[in-house]
Design goal:
Elements: H1 2-27, H2 31-58, H3 60-65, H4 71-83, H5 92-103, H6 108-128, H7 136-167, H8 171-191
Helix pairs in contact: 1-2, 1-5, 2-5, 4-7, 5-6, 5-7, 6-7
């Protein structure tokens, strides 16, 4: 349905924002700002998506009637709204952390988590659960469940990335100390008269 894509773009916009600002602050050696970017993007993406989705869920029959007047089509569309769109703010719980991981230079981890949690989980769900309950509701439930599985995998990726960061010395801090020491050592020479002058 078109409604899902509208809200997906809102969430993805915050995910891209998290990637961009995390990469800038990570490169500048400011982990506290990376944490702030993560928190703000997660808060705003959940808040904005929930606020935008709530009226569509509350008035789902009206919004579905904009596309079709047939009662069966409206019933199936309302089922899709209640099974997928209602839980779409949960998608933020892995999109924003995955964006922050990509911005911090860990692009493979969220890609693998998404591949396993979203793609592989849905394929297993279709092969294992759907044949036992061949209707739309169990099929639609694969979406929010896969978002939760992917959220757990991305959280595991955060732990792995944090462990890697703790094991490797902070190169940015070392570089800042090096340039700070060497810059201040040579700057006074620029302002003092040289013997050759």
């Amino acid at each position: 349905m078109n409604f899902e894509y509208l809200f997906y773009y809102v969430i993805t916009a915050f995910g891209q924002t998290a990637t961009t600002f995390t990469s800038q602050n990570h490169a500048a050696g400011m982990p506290d700002r990376c944490t702030r970017v993560f928190r703000l993007c997660l808060l705003y993406s959940v808040l904005f998506s929930a606020v935008l989705i709530a009226p569509v869920v509350a008035f789902r029959r009206f919004f579905c009637s904009l596309f079709s007047t047939e009662p069966a089509v409206i019933q199936y569309a309302c089922l899709r709204i209640m099974c997928i769109l209602l839980y779409e703010p949960a998608y933020c719980l892995y999109e924003i952390p995955a964006g922050c991981l990509r911005g911090a230079g860990h692009a493979v981890l969220p890609a693998a988590a998404t591949l396993l949690g979203t793609c592989a989980f849905r394929i297993v769900w279709i092969c294992a659960v759907f044949p036992r309950q061949p209707s739309l509701a169990p099929l639609y439930r694969a979406f929010p469940l896969s978002w939760l599985v992917t959220t757990a995998l991305v959280a595991l990726c955060f732990i792995i990335a944090a462990a890697r960061r703790a094991a490797v010395p902070d190169r940015c801090a070392q570089a800042r100390r090096f340039y700070k020491i060497n810059t201040f050592r040579f700057i006074p020479c620029l302002f003092q008269p040289c013997a050759a002058w």
